[in-house]
Amino acid sequence: MLERDSEGGLYVCMNTFLGFGREHIERHYRKTGQCVYLHLKQHVIEKVPGASGGALPQRRNAKLFLDLETNSDLNSDDFEYEDEAKLVIFPDHYEISLPNIEELPALVTIACDALLSAKSPYRKQEPDSWEEELQASKHAKALVQLDNGVRIPPSGWKCSKCDLRENLWLNLTDGSVLCGKWFFDGSGGNGHAMEHYKETGYPLAVKLGTITPDGADVYSFDEEEPVLDPHIAKHLAHFGIDMLQMQVTENGLRDNDIKPRVSEWEVIQEAGVKLKPMYGPGYTGMKNLGNSCYLNAVMQAIFSIPEFQRTYVGNLPRIFDYSPLDPTQDFNTQMAKLGHGLLSGQYSKPPMKSELIEQVMKEEHKPQHNGISPRMFKAFISKGHPEFSSNRQQDAQEFFLHLINLVERNPVGSENPSDVFRFLVEERTQCCQSRKVRYTERVDYIMQLPVAMEAATNKDELIAYELKRREAEATRRPPPELVRAKIPFSACLQAFSEPNNVEDFWSSALQAKSAGVKTSRFASFPEYLVVQIKKFTFGLDWIPKKLDVSVDMPDFLDISHLRARGLQPGEEELPDIAPPIVIPDDSKGIYSLDIDESSVMQLAEMGFPLEACRKAVYYTGNLGAEVAFNWIIAHMEEPDFAEPLAIPAFGEVASSGAAAFGAVGLDNQPPEEMVAIIISMGFQRNLAIRALKATNNNLERALEWIFSHPDLEEESEPALDMMDMENNANANILAETGSEGPRIKDGSGKYELFGFISHMGTSTMSGHYVCHLKKEGRWVIYNDLRVCASERPPKDLGYIYFYHRIPS
């Protein structure tokens, strides 16, 4: 977040090439003994009025330091930049201005020049995900638009040359709606938009579905890159698209003149309402690095929780003092740095009164240089992760769990802040024929609520809307005003608490397969309850979709009735017997295994080939999408990766009977079935056994353990034994302490809402995330860099909700 135009500039160590602010440079010198630093400082100088002559701001020193980002907020005709560089020698702070060929040895001069001309490390590490600032298209100002009477409806589009209804582009010259090409996120096309350009030469197109009051995605075929169109509102209006309709209401229309906002993009971002910017500690925005809004939203919520503030910001001096020599690779240092940036108020300062008066007099608005850029944090926390390290949009819920996993692995002292989310789930499984039961416990961090669509309170309106929508689509007329399903929260809670059928259940009482049901209850209540509304699903045609619903989430929540009760009088437990491994009569025959289609669909939504998803779920024993995802990552380079599933003969792979996974073998040895599954993924047997032991025979966590210790694949047996002892002790803390142990903060089941994260878009792999938090008695919206007082918090449209326990 520190840049050369920050107060005090940037100090770069000439030994490690790490950068530090003025307040941290002394600490680094004392800690390392490194005494030579390159000091970079940018001075912003206001020009004399009229001096620029309409030219862009001038840079007195043409060399761009370290390829760092410029302050675009000051990129106007009123300012020019002066870059200053000097060597600083500690401890006396002796300064040598650069360039200085006479005083400095040749090697030092070469090193300084190389450092000043070096590219940002993030451009080197992530060349595919680096995004330059979009430039205005050269065609935008004088774009020719044909007066052909074409009018574009708000929805119901399809390619005019094929039947595709996704990845559609509107040509801004003649109004043609055509499909683009296939992309990694699963959106497909036949390239008709590009063919049209080659035939006509019409250069600009806007992607349908991206148009909001704030702008739209525009592509220039001639310039071969995404561009800005400063006249996009006028160009869209030519085809009947009023993109600025919601902004008109800010210029004096009465509240009762404002049309109801229906689009989730408008409602969630509170478009059409003049929002008051908020400044100061805890009101700092975060720059979107290119589809990083999921990270921004989650981190804003995380650092609104006192336990995380205490652990990282409260311990900041200690964390910095004891950080490794390369703090860019230390999780706790990066968390403390990010937390300090969000909570210190140093990067969220209101404009001076004189600046406001000047803006009013000039009838212009200059955005403040506020907020932080979490580029180093994102680079570290996503390192090695196939999804979060990309520049694609991600699921905020998955990132939250990824973050909690890292917090668990990197404790700060005795307190682990992730404990505030941790709770125990009691699962009661009953054999429907023998009526016997089994009780088990597992740890979780999120309460996932299904959407009870059948309980919608406006079914008649939904049916009428669907009929009108289909009629409008058939006649190519504008669609009717959106009607959103209204789901009572109580119905979602009821659906969560109801018994679920257990697929392929094997009853140890009957020694055979039988019907079984499972119910889940809270064995403990967390201090902070995170609730996810499961809006993302698949249609009957396997196309991923998002349920556009309104759920009346309560401000105050009481789930005390979901408290687990354990084995009840009169209940008889199922025998603790593992199911047998069934060997077919024909050892060369084919045996079958039911495949969890819901896991297959989750993986397919990520863009993986359908057959590969089926193989991943099959070979990981139906243990869920996350385990299957790890299998995909390990096998995606194989030539037959996307080939259809051919179930092997018995003996080619070990049995993957998932029902036996809970059983513990003799001498605390993991079940052979689980070991075989890990071996089938390409790992060594001894590594599989140690991973399972280290995670108390939890296959999902064992795979995670292996991926987090990649160097151990080459380690010797003694080294693996030592790692096994360390991790097994940590993994068994919960089993030893029970629900009353220090890792569980049990208490009342009554909560109050203090924040929620909302998603806009049709899939977790696209769209935008926004966070709302309740601070100092009022709601605040965090929309990347924009932090404002919320006027109409859309609590019914959230995706992830944060509740804190009400003291009893």
From TrEMBL:
Gene3D superfamilies: Cysteine proteinases, DNA helicase RuvA subunit, C-terminal domain, Zinc/RING finger domain, C3HC4 (zinc finger). Transmembrane segments: none annotated. GO terms for molecular function: cysteine-type deubiquitinase activity; zinc ion binding. Zn(2+) binds at residues 159, 162, 179, 192. Residues 135-243 form the UBP-type domain. Its main location: cytoplasm. SMART domains: UBA, ZnF_UBP. One of its GO terms (cellular component) is cytoplasm. Its EC number is 3.4.19.12. The keyword Magnesium does not apply. It comes from the Eukaryota. Keywords: Autophagy, Cytoplasm, Hydrolase, Isopeptide bond, Metal-binding, Phosphoprotein, Protease, Repeat, Thiol protease, Ubl conjugation, Ubl conjugation pathway, Zinc, Zinc-finger. It is found in: Cytoplasm. The keyword Nucleotide-binding does not apply. It catalyses: Thiol-dependent hydrolysis of ester, thioester, amide, peptide and isopeptide bonds formed by the C-terminal Gly of ubiquitin (a 76-residue protein attached to proteins as an intracellular targeting signal). One of its GO terms (biological process) is autophagy. Residues 594-635, 669-709 form the UBA domain. Belongs to the peptidase C19 family. Interacts with UFD1. Interacts (via UBA domains) with SIAH2 (when ubiquitinated). Interacts with BAG6; the interaction is direct and may mediate UBL4A deubiquitination. Interacts (via UBA 2 domain) with AMFR; the interaction is direct. Interacts with UBL4A; may be indirect via BAG6. Interacts with NEDD4. This is Ubiquitin carboxyl-terminal hydrolase.
